[in-house]
Amino acid sequence: MPELPPAVRGFGVTFKTMFKKVVTEQYPEQADRFPPKPRFHGRHQLNRWPDGLEKCVGCELCAWACPADAILVEGADNTDTERFSPGERYGRVYQINYLRCIFCGLCIEACPTRALTMTNVYELADDNRADLIFEKSELLAPLLPGMIAPPHSMVPGTTEKDYYAGQVSGSVPEQEPDGDAAIWFEKQGYKA
Amino acid sequence: MTLAPHQTSVQPVDTVTVSVDGIEVRVPKGMLIIRVAELMGIEIPRFCDHPLLDPVAACRMCLIEIDGQGQPQPACAQTVTDGMVIKTQRTSELAKEAQEGVMEFLLLNHPLDCPVCDKGGECPLQNQAMTVGRPEARFDEKRRTFPKPINVSAQILLDRERCVSCARCTRFADQIAGDPMLELLERGAQQQVGIGPDAPFDSYYSGNTIQICPVGALTSSLYRFRSRPFDLVSTPTACEHCASGCALRTDVRRGVITRRLAWDDPEVNEDWNCDKGRFAFLYTADGRVETPLVREDGRLRVASWPEALDTAAHGLAAARGRAGVLTGGRLTREDAYAYAKFARLALGTNDIDFRNRVSGDEEAQFLASMVAGRRLGPTYSDLDHAPLVLLAGLETEDESPIIFLRLRKAVRSHGLRVQAISAVRTRSLDKLQASWWACQPGNEAWALRQIIDGPQGADALAGLRQPGAVILIGERLAGVPGALSAAAALADATGAKLGWVPRRAGERGALDAGALPGLLPGGRQVTDEGARAQVAAVWGVRSDVLPSRIGRSSSQVIAAIRSDAARADADSEPAVQALLVAGLDVEDSPEAGAFRQALDEVPFLVAVSTHHNEVTERADVVFPSAVVAEKAGGFTDWEGRVRSFGPAIRESSSVADGRILAMVADVMEVPFGTGDVASLRAELDSLTPSTVTRAAAPQVASSAAPTPESGYALLATWRLLLDRGRLQEGEPHLAATARPTEAVMSRATANSLGVANAATVTLSTARGSVTLPLAIGDVADGAVWAPLNSEGCALLGIGATYGSVVRVTGGAR
Ligand code: SF4
Ligand code: SF4
Ligand code: SF4
Ligand code: SF4
Ligand code: FES
After folding, report:
1. CATH 3.90.25.10 corresponds to the domain B114-119+138-284
2. How far is B226 from chain A (nearest CA, A)?
3. For chain B, how many helices (H) and strands (E)?
4. Model pLDDT, residue A34
5. Do domains B293-354+508-687 and B368-503 have the same CATH topology?
6. Which of residues 208-237 of B touch A (CB under 8 A)?
7. Ligand 4 pocket test: which of B259, B263, B272, B276 has the largest number of ligand atoms within 8 Å of its C-beta?
């Protein structure tokens, strides 16, 4: 078979490709069509108990495990009037610096209460550094139905052990925060 | 951890030869096996063992095998004998299994608290469970639990589940502090540390138990949940609260102090410190002066540094030769030295005094002749070895807590005899098994003279003549005429070592730095021409620049300002034109009222202060200065030992007093140097004398205390360790462990005053009164004791101080 001129031969590749499946993903136009895989390491989330209390106890084990020194945690005491988590201790300050995070997931492995997990959210770009340091208010999981925004009491008659044992399935009316707590909560800049 | 060497000279010791893990060593006879292994670098796990506590072998973690003994033995309680063959977990299967078994038992009931436990990250239990524990837990029953933490005191919390029953805390409380309020209660799985009903662990040394607890069972309200070890930047430092000179460690998280710990210094505080040094650091946060301030139209306003420096320099230059400097007792030695130098060079005056307390000329002379510029001594180690220690005008637990610990150690270890000339038989005297020589406040001089030539003194005199005997006197004797003269004479007559124990951390350093009207740095006298020449040479000035007349003390300066103001004619030159005041509190002064008025009246007032206070309020120029944690410097403890430290909060931009003075001097065109710590320290050290012509010891005749009329009593008083002091602000948990504010007197005194049945008594002076609950105790007859500066009992505020005569009435008035 006589050789086609090289210039024409080159178009063969083009021609063949026209009948192949397109692998290019159009981002951001068609982002929805290509969701990440379920185990993709995306932005972190601080989870809640079914009644809305936070799972984080402020132990700093995530910060300790982090190879990139991206996490800052400060623990504090829960009090009877200002309770954020079951038990004695909660994370008063929680920040993750996404300029440093390498999404290795060691932090979520270290978390003893499963408070910290990772979502699939990967859209983490911004035009300034400060906004890429996520505060606790940005990392906290959204309130689902049946959850009340802390601070509020534990479900009456339970201890923190009941929370860990899965005995608490949602909030009860007694936990509704009174006006004071709600105002305080707002002042802290939490988005309910 | 090391122990204080007990011999200053090397003495031959009996040795034995033992083998540990197959390695032969010769060690002193009677050493514990665990110490031998430590010296060899072989680590035996342990919980209860502590080198400064008596062995108990409570935890069984240190089990090892000794050839010829079937059972594993605790290494922390067995001493070595010649030819002993020891095998640790490294070479003995028996020891390894025994340790694994003990660890398994310890963990049976241990909670899974690590994430919420303060010890996590620095926990001997975590560490040793990893190194010698079994990798898998075999226990899946329900664990024993206790309700979460209980307060053993306002400051100290106990999580009983975490306790491994090592008895370190209880042994510390009993053996070291002598406050046996913590005890192991119950038996078996219910064994727990606890306190008696209504008997909280209010020991001045309670914080040490947190530090030595090998688990997180004991925590402090202050530090609970504050941080993890890896967050902290630790700096060795020296304590600013008293003249004991504790080595401490300050832990800082992102520019904020989170906790302080005792640091190991075998020569001084060993492994311990007091709760004030440990917990009182929050004062650094609030009420700080943040920028320079200048007075304009009668009001202070924020000013730039150059403006404030200019204003201060002009005002002070105009007052050259007619300015006073009051520095207080809290400055580092370098800063005090900077004031001493500034006074002489920039202000041309010797009117500088660090004593913002009861003081006097006799004391100044005493300090010049017996203390200033002297090298080390007497020391803690002298207390350790003394046959007899005589205390006069000094309540060790309140005024120098580490002296108390050292005395107690010597009492326990070799039967040191302590004698105390004191108005009150205090708890500390009981804990020292001291013989109490009841002495009315103001009669100390007489009592000291009695030892020299009185009939009852022969025994004490013979005791003090023994080699190594020590006399310790407190700063409060400055207010008792003749007492310091008598103490000096007694030391002279017996050959006993004489130690002067001031209360504030900076006093000894300020004395050695020359912050006194009659003294230049290094104990040199201002009237001594040769001494002036030496100092002038170091300062690089001609020696006739230095003023040669003895200056005025703080009370004389205050009096001079008052009389200036009282003189009506405005034309005559004021005797004091300007005052430079460092961070001191007016209310600490025994003449606070006059001091306040003097501050109002003095034509020009410059304050250098860390905090806003009564001085800054009245000042014409205020400079913000650095607190101890923010700067480098050093204190000189009561022994004369220099305790240098670096800045703990490195990110601070605050400036130390020395630098501020250098900047002012610069504007005044006075050759002062840069005023940085390193150069001030170098100058000061080069001025440490080899020989100095000293003033003679004071020879003030002693007089007896006045005999109070009926209805009146002599006041015995001092500051409790925990009280209203400025540097303890912001720590309510600490304040809650303070000793009660009460008036104490003997039953006989109460009867003769007719208040025996009263619940409260009122102590009054011409200027006011305080009402306190009454307690009956061992107090010299005719005297009443009350704290000098506690909540609801600010005695200086009513013009009462040690030895004052106060009116005592029953019930509230
Ligand atoms: S994912 Fe990795 S890098 Fe990111 S915060 Fe967690 S531990 Fe740190
Ligand atoms: S004491 Fe140690 S092992 Fe026990 S909970 Fe605390 S950190 Fe964990
Ligand atoms: S509280 Fe701590 S120091 Fe005290 S016995 Fe328990 S483990 Fe030992
Ligand atoms: S004894 Fe004195 S120096 Fe030591 S910690 Fe207490 S206050 Fe500080
Ligand atoms: S360390 Fe030896 S028994 Fe505790």
Report:
1. no
2. 6
3. 25, 37
4. 86
5. no
6. 224-228, 230-231
7. B276
The ipTM of this complex is 0.85
Contact A59 B120 (CB under 8 A): yes
Cβ B116–A113 below 8 Å, yes or no?
no
* Fold category of B15-108 in CATH: Ubiquitin-like (UB roll) (3.10.20)
For residue B732, CA distances in Å to B240, B257, B719, B738 come to 19, 17, 18, 10
Backbone φ and ψ of B560, nearest 5°: -65, -40
Per-residue pLDDT, B455 = 82
What is the per-residue pLDDT across B409-440, written as a single tens digit (0 to 9) for each?
999 999 999 999 999 999 999 999 999 999 99
Mean pLDDT of B609-635: 96
| pLDDT tens figures, B267-323 | 999 999 999 999 999 999 889 999 999 999 999 999 999 999 999 999 999 999 999
Write out the E strands in B613-677. 621-624, 633-636, 642-645
DSSP secondary structure code for residue A152 in this structure = -
Instruction: State residue A102's pLDDT score.
Output: 97
Which neighbouring-strand residues pair with A101? none
pTM of the model: 0.93
Kindly state whether B527 is in contact with chain A, defined as any CB-CB distance less than 8 angstroms.
Answer: no
Residue of B nearest to A75 (CA): B225
CATH of domain B293-354+508-687: 3.40.50.740
Q: Report the nearest atom of ligand 3 relative to the CA of B182.
A: 4
Q: What is the CATH number of domain B712-810?
A: 2.40.40.20
Q: What pLDDT does A179 receive?
A: 46
Q: How far is the CA of B107 from the centre of ligand 5 (A)?
A: 16
From the candidates B112, B113, B116, B151, which should be mutated to test the interface with A, based on the most A CB atoms within 10 A?
Answer: B116
Segments making up each domain of chain B, as ranges: 15-108, 114-119+138-284, 293-354+508-687, 368-503, 712-810
Q: For residues B22 and B27, what is the distance between their CA atoms, to the nearest angstrom?
A: 15
- What burial class does residue B486 get, using C-beta atoms within 10 Å of its C-beta: 0-12 exposed, 13-18 middle, 19+ buried? buried
The pLDDT value given to residue B813: 42
Q: CATH for B368-503?
A: 3.40.228.10
Helix B592-601 × helix B554-566 angle, to 10° = 60
Least confident range of A85-99, B162-176, B695-709, B783-797: B695-709
Q: Measured between beta carbons, which residues in chain B are less than 8 angstroms from residue A74?
A: 226-227
Residue A178's pLDDT band (cuts 50, 70, 90):
low
